[in-house]
Amino acid sequence: MKTSSEPVAEHVQAFLAERTRQTWARDTDLFATGGLSSMFAMELVVHLESTFDIVIAGPDLALDNFRTVDAMTALVLRLREAER
Questions:
Q1: CATH number where 35 lies
Q2: Whole-model pTM?
Q3: How far apart are CA 43 and CA 75, in angstroms?
Q4: Where are the transmembrane segments (predicted)?
């Protein structure tokens, strides 16, 4: 059974809003717009791992997986599926 992307995306958006004090569209490039730094990317990794009980390692640590809410959502869903 596949997990819906909506709850994951909503959680990621809420976390970003809380930490950056602004809202982000799901397809906004968070790094290109200057919204996030590479240091914050590491905080995102830790947060996603602990919240969604996944391990992000190796090639999955590529910045492209964290550029948008949609990219992070896809990463979480793919890793959750792989662990089943």
A1: 1.10.1200.10
A2: 0.91
A3: 16
A4: none
